[in-house]
Design brief:
Elements lengths: L12 H26 L9 H24 L11 H18 L5 H19 L6 H24 L5 H23 L6 H23 L4
Helix pairs in contact: 2-3, 2-7, 3-4, 4-5, 4-7, 5-6, 6-7
């Protein structure tokens, strides 16, 4: 008995799907390579690595201060949820503008402005009481994580892996925010945002030290 008849000249659907995935990967690789050539001159100054490390330390300190402030219950006078994220985002944008002058690194500046936006969101609604504010919070966190990953993957120096890894790790903050909202004990959004900024700060420190040896 002969087996089931198979149409001739029509490859299986899996082959079509695999071919499409490969085509997509080739396109993404081409986009990344083209982007690397465009940003190849970034952070090549003799002291840029120090400024990056200093920026990373500032962001890390602000994040740790926020985490300690919330976990230890030692509410600092005048502190309000989100204020450290606003300060950190502004410093990130300003320092990157100085580093890139006269060129503007729009992706880095956007990352700083997203931090500012997250901070203002918590200033207006510290506990994200509405569904819309929580959804916007998660969306902005996802945009920060995506930008970190994109910048890290498209950098032409080995330190870019720090940002890429930090961006991928930052996606966990979104899951943490979702679980913390509906599970007990409740996790304050300010803690989640501080953790996101902590990953960003540590990634920038790693980028700075790695770019030190780059010619």
């Amino acid at each position: 008995m002969s087996g089931p008849h198979r149409p001739i000249g029509h490859p299986p659907r899996r082959a079509h799907a695999a071919a499409r995935v490969l085509d997509l990967l080739y396109v993404l690789q081409a986009i990344v390579q083209r982007r690397r050539r465009r940003v190849s001159g970034r952070f090549r100054g003799p002291y840029d690595w120090r400024r990056l490390c200093a920026l990373g330390v500032i962001l890390t300190d602000l994040a740790v201060l926020t985490i300690a402030n919330v976990l230890l219950g030692a509410r600092l006078l005048g502190y309000w949820p989100g204020t450290n994220a606003i300060l950190g985002g502004l410093l990130l944008s300003i320092i990157i503008i100085r580093l890139g002058s006269p060129r503007l690194y729009h992706d880095w500046i956007a990352m700083g402005l997203l931090q500012v936006g997250l901070g203002f969101l918590l200033v207006n609604d510290p506990l994200l009481t509405t569904v819309w504010s929580f959804a916007l919070f998660c969306l902005l966190l996802a945009m920060v994580a995506t930008l970190m990953t994109w910048i890290g993957k498209t950098m032409d120096i080995k330190g870019g892996v720090w940002l890429a890894a930090g961006g991928l790790t930052n996606f966990n903050c979104i899951a943490w925010a979702i679980v913390g909202r509906y599970a007990a004990p409740h996790v304050e959004p300010d803690i989640v945002l501080a953790a996101s900024m902590l990953f960003l700060g540590l990634s920038i420190i790693g980028l700075g030290f790695s770019s030190r040896k780059h010619p």
